[in-house]
Amino acid sequence: MKFIHLSDLHIGKRVNGFSMLEDQKYILDQILMIAEEEMPDGVLIAGDIYDKPVPPAEAVQVFDAFLTGLADRNLPVFVISGNHDSPERLAFGGQLMKDRRVYMAPVYDGHLEPVQLEDRYGSLRVYMLPFIKPAVVRRCCPEEGIETFEDAVRWALEHRAEHKKGEDGRNILIAHQFVTGASCCDSEELSIGGLDQVSAELFDSFDYVAMGHIHGPQKVGRDTLRYSGTPLKYSFSEVNHRKSVTVVELLEKGNVTVNTRPLRPLHDMRELRGSYEELTSRDFYQGTAVDDYLHITLTDEEDILDAIGKLRSIYPNVMKLDYDNKRTREGRVVEAAANADKPPIVLMEELYQLQNNQPMTEQQADFAVKLMEEIWEGSR
Questions:
Q1: What gap in Å lies between CA 166 and CA 122, rounded to an integer?
Q2: 124: part of which helix (H) or strand (E)?
Q3: 3-state DSSP call for residue 346?
Q4: pLDDT tens digits, residue range 86-103?
């Protein structure tokens, strides 16, 4: 059986104030095309469908259209909630959707029932474990002393239906947890000190583990314990990620192959560095994707007036602007004047020197004096 594994759609997310909704529609349409080409036996969606527990209406409409597109292609879909989702909202209508083979993980209540599938190699069980915390599992077994995420996930897996019977068959788990050893990036919400981590050994009895939560595509330990990663870049720590969907095929027990299909975004996320003059030169930007989402670092020693506004006339989707020069590298900050009796022009010259690592020119000093005099006269 062949499956497409994806996760962490974060529909409705805003990055540095920019709505990603059009980019998300574009990439989900691309995933539908990949599904048509691959003709999988199911699609596994490992949580964080939305970016917020109460998503905006537009985000719900986007996911509804995506689910409908998968169902119209007669593809079974398996969906769990992540830490960004409301499990109750995501599970709503789950019983009705089963008729179209759209399986929504119910709110965790201590039971983990598989969906049974059949092919020429026999039965295959798909378990859907939504994101769980220790407190959620404690409600199901108050006498067990569940304290950590490790305790919670272990108990949930050990008490799943068909646990002993399924050891001889093929088993897939869809989960949304932080497995120890996974590489993180800035767009994820993780617990301080790694308190939310669980060990990879908990999943040893599964032939394939479709993980969500970590945004970089990667395996953890073995090829068949895998994070598919986000379909889009959601932070500049991800500029070097190659986003993809995972395609996994399970033949007879123990024979699993894992491949990826690359995704191409509507707007890439990139970093540019150079002086203002360099970055605004037609020779530099001509023929490049100027509408990508950009983090620009200017190396000018002097701040450019309204730099981000001017840069956006060429690069409309500048998300972030920084400076890297002598001042910023030394980490110096402007402090209160030590001597309040200094003449205003001297204080201005000291401030200019501190900000720009060079003295004011004579022309600049003359202009500043005249401006101060005009302001002084106007206030009298």
A1: 12
A2: strand 122-128
A3: helix
A4: 999 999 988 888 888 999
List strands edge to edge, sheet with 269-274. Answer: 269-274, 293-298, 318-323
By three-state DSSP, how is residue 3 classified?
Answer: strand
Would you list the domain boundaries of the chain?
2-262, 269-329, 341-378
- Write the pLDDT tens digit of every residue in 164-185: 555 678 999 999 999 988 887 7
> Residues with Cβ < 8 Å from 111, sequence gap 6 or more?
161
- Residues shown for the chain: 380
Region 2-262: CATH code: 3.60.21.10
d(CA 248, CA 240): 24
Q: Which residues contact 70 (CB under 8 A, 6 or more apart)?
A: 32, 35, 43, 77, 102
CA distance 14 to 162: 41
Q: pLDDT tens digits, residue range 68-84? A: 999 999 999 999 999 99
Neighbouring CB atoms inside 10 A of 183's CB total: 10
pTM of the predicted model as reported, rounded to 2 decimal places: 0.82
**What is the C-alpha to C-alpha distance for residues 103 and 111, in angstroms, rounded to an integer?**
15
